[in-house]
Specification:
Elements lengths: L1 H22 L6 H80 L1 H5 L10 H12 L1
Length: 138
Amino acid sequence: MTSAIRPSVRGLVLAAGMALMLTGCDYWPPALQAQIEQLKAEVQTAAAERASLDNQLKDAVKAKEEIQSRLDELSRLNHELAGNIATLKQALDAEREKIAKLGKSGTKAAPKAAAKPAPAQKKPSAKTQAKAHAKKKV
């Protein structure tokens, strides 16, 4: 009779063990709970740092784009001004050639005119200089 009871007891114990395995265990040791809480706090801190770094990255990208657009604008203006300078140099060279031609033909007819010194330029007053300086600032 003991041999007949033993297999059924074994089956019963085995069934109870399987039931416990399927339901799980709700007991967490205090040290494990503390470790889990510490890890959760570290995850929250890391998430906050990441959000802060993301915001800094967005600000840096925005500043880079603003600087790049300003650089593009200044490059365009530089190109335009270089074109204007080239045009003005050509016009100046043409005027110098005209003056040289007039000077050659004018020296034979009026040598006294070439010997006259150029009139001295007046120095602008302090008021005029202050106005010009104010206009440059604007």
